[in-house]
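Appendix B. Raw example, untouched.
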Amino acid sequence: MRLNAVLVACVFALQAATAATEDPSKFLSEISIGGEGGWDYLSIDPAARRLYVTHSTKIVVLDLDTDAVVGEIADTPGVHGFAIAPELALGFSSNGKEAKVSVVDLKTLTTIAKIKTDENPDAILYEPARQEVYTFNGRGKSATVFEAKTGKVVATIPLPGKPEFAVADSKAGFVYCNIEDRNAVVVLTAQTHEIAATWPIAPGESASGMAIDLAHHRLFLGCENQLMLMMDSTNGKVISSVHIDKNVDANAFDPVTQLAFSSNGEGSVTIAHEDSPGKLTPVQELKTEPGARTMALDPQSHRIYLAAAKFEPMPSPAPGASSQRPAIVSSTLRILVYGPEK
């Protein structure tokens, strides 16, 4: 009996060691979207098994179980993000070019109202405890807050700089947002809609993506100077960091696997494991495609989804012109799917 127990223990130890050396994510499939124009955030409704892909003037809706396009949400000029209120069967798109939010019936995919915001609403989130929607307005340097059910604007919060991505901790009563041009995170109080704290992110610079580990009170910030930070969401202390590739945009965190993801436009996703609330360890540099920098995580399948397209050659810069981006090749937008093997 004792020998058998030792053998079983050895087998489990070998399996654990093997699993630790295996890459957690592999390329699984791609889903064709096509059409014209660029894209921004991707959003997932895990319960409804839907993926929402913002795409220029519309949002393309995919079924996560069949990898099929199942509908579109029209009339979202310059759309950046899409927030989901599943218990209300409503979605909310931040339409940057018209400084409005579309309120969408998720059952019919029709727009039932539009809410005015400050200039260039970009990131958007739904805070379920108070059933409120926040838009983070890039050129407006503010956050607009409105009631999800009624569309009534309840606050406009001035911010100290250009806001980027944001997350909410409803139990703690806070909303966290990156201030990209100030190398800072602001903490907003959900009850009073006021700034409770502003935290520097050094050694990080110019954070864009943000994700949260609610159980351990950790924020994950994707920074322009090729760092993914792990920050204590109770006091703003930077606990740990890992090196990432260039041109980060989005971050995600899987509470089951304890993996944090950074999608980098250089053509990779950096994957790190939260070994403990004090330690973040890189485990994989997943190769994707250049330009694939926006991402969403499905917590049920543990897959990540990235938008990608083909690009024309980079044009020669005109004298005195600001930096340019290459044009997107028509009808090449698609979603790349990575995760554990089926």
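End of appendix B.
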